[in-house]
Specification:
The chain has nine helices and ten strands. The chain is an alpha/beta fold. The strands form two sheets. Strands 6-7-8-3-9-10 form a six-stranded mixed β-sheet, with helices on both faces.
């Protein structure tokens, strides 16, 4: 059974239809990579999945059970609870500048479970070791490079123990020399059976890390398959044109 199933997700802003009927499934432990040109709907799709936008139409199933239906009303508390299934790492790191690295990672878990602060602290320290930043626990975001800040943002998302970790162009705000360190962390998560959805413009990385690739164009899934199918044997003219531009 798929951990996540999306049925007929649609989203418009005014008269502009950004998502025009998106359907896909995600298996536990799978890495789904979403590619496509700017404006194809990739970021809006992630924002809808993380309940930062409300789809106009569509249903989310989580482990076979209905998690969300666009035609139903939910309280803010219910949406916050549903959001806990997902973690989102943004293009811009969005760290709290007034807090140390360690505080940035423990803040949300401490607010959610105030009686478990000691466990959250140990988890944060273990995550910092995992991303290679144990020596920067007491640093502030302004004292870190962009790549280090993004790695902290990944640790912060992991600290909430989401079922599905989402990345929205995690290297787009980084200089090329810093991109590799962030992609290395994401690759390491793949080996730990994390379930991930990654929006990226790094085609070599997508080919390497993905179990499944979705190519989006004009708010729909134009093509979907394994990396070998999508990159090695593209079928649609739009996908062929997109890949030609990225070579």
């Amino acid at each position: 059974m798929a951990i996540l199933e999306i049925k007929d997700m649609r989203k418009s802003f005014g008269k502009v239809a950004v998502l025009r009927g998106v359907d896909f499934t995600l298996e536990k432990g799978e890495v789904l990579v979403i590619i496509g040109s700017s404006g194809s709907g990739k970021t809006t799709l992630l924002r809808c999945l993380n309940f930062l936008e409300s789809p106009d139409c569509g249903t989310f199933l989580f482990n076979g059970e209905e998690l969300y239906a666009a035609d139903k009303e939910y309280s803010d508390a219910e949406i916050r609870e549903k959001r806990l299934h997902f973690g989102l790492v943004f293009q811009q790191f969005n760290l709290f500048p007034q807090y140390t690295v360690l505080k940035n990672i423990t803040l949300a878990p401490d607010l959610r479970e105030p009686n478990d602060k000691e466990r959250h602290l140990e988890t944060a320290k273990a995550l910092l070791e995992k991303i290679g930043l144990s020596d920067r626990a007491d640093a502030y975001p302004c004292q870190l490079s962009g790549g280090q800040q993004q790695r902290v943002a990944i640790a912060r998302a992991l600290a909430m123990e989401p079922d599905i970790l989402c990345f929205d162009e995690p290297t787009s705000a980084l200089d090329p020399e810093l991109t590799g360190e962030v992609l290395k962390v994401i690759r390491s998560l793949k080996s730990s059976d994390s379930t991930m959805i990654v929006v990226t413009h790094e085609m070599a990385f997508a080919r390497d890390v993905a179990d499944k690739v979705i190519f989006m164009a004009d708010g729909v899934i134009e093509e979907c398959g394994t990396p070998e199918e999508v990159f090695g044997n593209p079928k649609s003219a739009r996908l062929k044109a997109f890949l030609a531009k990225t070579e």
